């Protein structure tokens, strides 16, 4: 019996490289602060979230380019740093601290293996990534201190930082550098940005904090920022309307 031989079945598609969440790229920027000795890090989540969406196609089509662009974005958000060069093909980014001229180079080549290195002169810091838990986590350990980004359940958030009732909190991070403790976490609520800011303002003033508050509008999304200070303690609340809910970043620091 004559017939044509059917073609072999197509092989299984190659698995997509797992990209890091936007939080991880924000963490890379914070990691630069640790290496440069700058300590704590506050990030405007509303601005970052909008820009991060532009990288979705790169994440799907070219994860390596996405990695470099994401890290470059995180670093550019810090006004104290200047990005000197960014090479997506080589997987490196070099930045300089404007105040001192100190330069460091980020090597993202090893990121698929779960780590990459940061070089600054003769010093080297290794960043370990753990994608085993939801959202992943990143730990940076150097002679200046330890930073943990992602994972966790908020157990290390100090009790002097107010928690918002009924909100979902996630993406916890904490940093300990030269006796200074700081950290961040995000919250999600159906309440308006104005309601969230008013709550934190009331709680901060009741606890004796001095408060500065401002509102902003970015691409039609209403948000705002609150900074509360009391002695060696500071916490910062940045909120914005994103995807039908109010999202916020809470950042805190306590100096020795």
Written account of the structure:
- 22% of the residues lie in helices and 40% in strands.
- It has helices spanning 22-35, 45-52, 56-61, 63-76, 193-206; strands at 81-87, 92-97, 103-107, 115-120, 123-130, 137-142, 145-149, 168-177, 180-189, 210-218, 221-230, 233-242, 245-254.
- Strands 1-2-3-4-5-6-7-8-9-13-12-11-10 form a 13-stranded antiparallel β-sheet, sandwiched between helices.
- A hairpin with a 2-residue loop joins β6 (137-142) and β7.
- α1 (22-35) packs across α4 (63-76).
Features of the shown structure:
Protein Transport Mog1p, Chain A; 13-stranded antiparallel beta sheet; alpha+beta; 256 residues; globular; 13 strands; 5 helices
* DSSP summary, beta strand count: 13
Q: Characterize the largest beta sheet: strand count, sense, and whether it forms a barrel.
A: 13 strands, antiparallel
Distance between the termini: 87 Å
Structural class: alpha+beta
**Can you tell me the overall shape?**
globular
What is the fold's blueprint, element by element?
Elements: H1 22-35, H2 45-52, H3 56-61, H4 63-76, E1 81-87, E2 92-97, E3 103-107, E4 115-120, E5 123-130, E6 137-142, E7 145-149, E8 168-177, E9 180-189, H5 193-206, E10 210-218, E11 221-230, E12 233-242, E13 245-254
Antiparallel strand pairs: 1-2, 2-3, 3-4, 4-5, 5-6, 6-7, 7-8, 8-9, 9-13, 10-11, 11-12, 12-13
Helix pairs in contact: 1-4
Give a short overview:
This protein is α+β, with helices and mostly antiparallel strands and 256 residues long. It has helices at residues 22-35, 45-52, 56-61, 63-76, 193-206, and strands at 81-87, 92-97, 103-107, 115-120, 123-130, 137-142, 145-149, 168-177, 180-189, 210-218, 221-230, 233-242, 245-254. Helices cover 22% and strands 40% of the residues.
């Amino acid at each position: 019996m004559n017939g044509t031989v059917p073609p072999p079945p197509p092989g299984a598609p190659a698995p997509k490289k797992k990209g890091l969440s936007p939080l991880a790229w924000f963490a890379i920027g914070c990691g630069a602060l640790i290496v440069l000795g700058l300590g704590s890090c506050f990030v405007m989540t509303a601005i970052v979230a909008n820009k991060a969406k532009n990288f979705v196609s790169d994440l799907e089509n070219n994860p390596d380019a996405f990695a470099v662009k994401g890290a470059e974005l995180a670093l550019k958000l810090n006004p104290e740093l200047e990005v000197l060069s960014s090479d997506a093909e080589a997987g490196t980014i070099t930045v300089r601290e404007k105040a001192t001229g100190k330069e460091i180079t980020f090597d993202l080549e090893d990121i698929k293996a779960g780590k990459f290195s940061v070089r600054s002169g003769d010093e080297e810091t290794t960043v370990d990534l753990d994608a085993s838990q939801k959202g992943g986590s990143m730990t940076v350990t150097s002679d200046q201190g330890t930073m943990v980004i992602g994972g966790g359940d908020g157990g290390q958030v100090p009790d002097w930082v107010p928690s918002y009732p009924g909100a979902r909190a996630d993406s916890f991070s904490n940093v300990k550098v030269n006796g200074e403790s700081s950290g961040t976490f995000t919250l999600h609520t159906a309440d308006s940005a104005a309601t969230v800011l008013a709550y934190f303002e009331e709680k901060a003033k009741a606890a004796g904090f001095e408060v500065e508050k401002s509102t902003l509008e970015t691409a039609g999304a209403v948000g705002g920022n609150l900074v509360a200070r009391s002695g060696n303690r500071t916490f910062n609340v940045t909120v914005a309307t994103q995807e039908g809910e109010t999202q916020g970043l809470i950042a805190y620091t306590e100096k020795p």
